[in-house]
């Protein structure tokens, strides 16, 4: 099931000029194995610019693997993945192109502990994109302000709370100016009182029109932000719907079971 251009226009009037372009992400009949284990089965997914997709499903259903295939942290074996017009193949140039467009935030923040917050944010812009340090630092401060922790710039990750560290990880990703952001359970390692500050940052990013794929079990976030919710089970996309129908009228019994357990 794909979403028509008219539906997207209705949801995102501010993106009208973008609609009609090629999809940002197009996955067709994608399959992946870990050795003998068939982890992803015939995945089909089209994501247009500015769309917010929430992916949920039981542990082990393949959510992380699917997300990681989109920036080639994992390699698929069959089918096609096209990101902003670039197909992911063995061509290293294509992989580099796609990685430049796609930011990723993980459950564990993966910040460099021996570098300050500011240095964490500037590392890739300086060393990968060869930006002058003052430009990289100015942009890093801009994004640290947007995630509301500019005052932490000179601190080390270990001096910050989990929620603050995760916001640094988001800012660090944004410093590479991605066109797509992937989130893999960004709040599931956080204490409850820190979840909201990270979700607020993600909501803000969504409101600014970022194309987002979020693996999360924060169903409040899914209800308010997602254009579509995708439910995965045993390596397949089992159900895909707008949040209202997904939560109020799930069609598949595995979705129903899952929702009854988490809501
Ligand atoms: P989810 O994110 O939905 O919990 P994952 O994508 O992490 O699921 O994992 C899907 C399945 O693939 C699980 O059964 C997991 O044990 C298996 N798996 C994940 N990573 C690897 C790996 N590197 N090698 C072998 N099996 C893996
Ligand atoms: Mg996972």
TrEMBL record:
Entries under Gene3D superfamilies matching the protein: P-loop containing nucleotide triphosphate hydrolases
Gene Ontology MF annotations: ABC-type amino acid transporter activity; ATP binding; ATP hydrolysis activity
Pfam families noted in UniProt: ABC_tran
PROSITE patterns from the UniProt entry: ABC_TRANSPORTER_1, ABC_TRANSPORTER_2
Domain ABC transporter stretches: 25-259
UniProt KW keywords: ATP-binding, Nucleotide-binding, Transport
CDD domains xrefs: ABC_HisP_GlnQ
Family in the record: Belongs to the ABC transporter superfamily.
Protein name: General L-amino acid transport system ATP-binding protein
Organism taxonomic ancestry: Bacteria, Pseudomonadati, Pseudomonadota, Alphaproteobacteria, Rhodospirillales
């Amino acid at each position: 099931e794909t979403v028509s251009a008219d539906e997207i226009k209705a949801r995102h009037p501010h993106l009208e000029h973008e609609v009609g372009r090629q999809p940002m992400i197009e996955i067709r009949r994608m399959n992946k194995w870990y050795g003998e284990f068939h982890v992803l089965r015939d995945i089909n997914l089209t994501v247009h610019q500015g769309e917010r997709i929430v992916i949920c499903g039981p542990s082990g259903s393949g959510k992380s693997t699917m997300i990681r295939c989109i920036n080639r942290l994992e390699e698929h074996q069959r089918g096609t993945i096209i990101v902003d017009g670039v197909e992911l193949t063995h061509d290293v140039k294509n992989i580099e192109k796609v990685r430049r467009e796609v930011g990723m935030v993980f459950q564990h923040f993966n910040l460099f502990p021996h570098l300050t917050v500011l240095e964490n944010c500037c590392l890739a812009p300086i060393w990968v994109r060869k930006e002058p340090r003052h430009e990289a630092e100015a942009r890093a401060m801009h994004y640290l302000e947007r995630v509301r922790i500019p005052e932490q710039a000179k601190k080390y990750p270990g001096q910050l709370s989990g929620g603050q560290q995760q916001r640094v990880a988001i800012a660090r990703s944004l410093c590479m100016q991605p066109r797509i952001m992937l989130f893999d359970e960004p709040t599931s390692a956080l204490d409850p009182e820190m979840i909201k500050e990270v979700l607020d940052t993600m909501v803000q990013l969504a409101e600014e029109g970022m194309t987002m794929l979020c693996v999360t079990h924060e169903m409040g976030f899914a209800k308010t932000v997602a254009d579509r919710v995708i439910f995965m089970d045993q390596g397949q996309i089992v159900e895909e719907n707008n949040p209202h129908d997904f939560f109020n009228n799930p069609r598949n019994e595995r979705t129903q079971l899952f929702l009854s357990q988490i809501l």
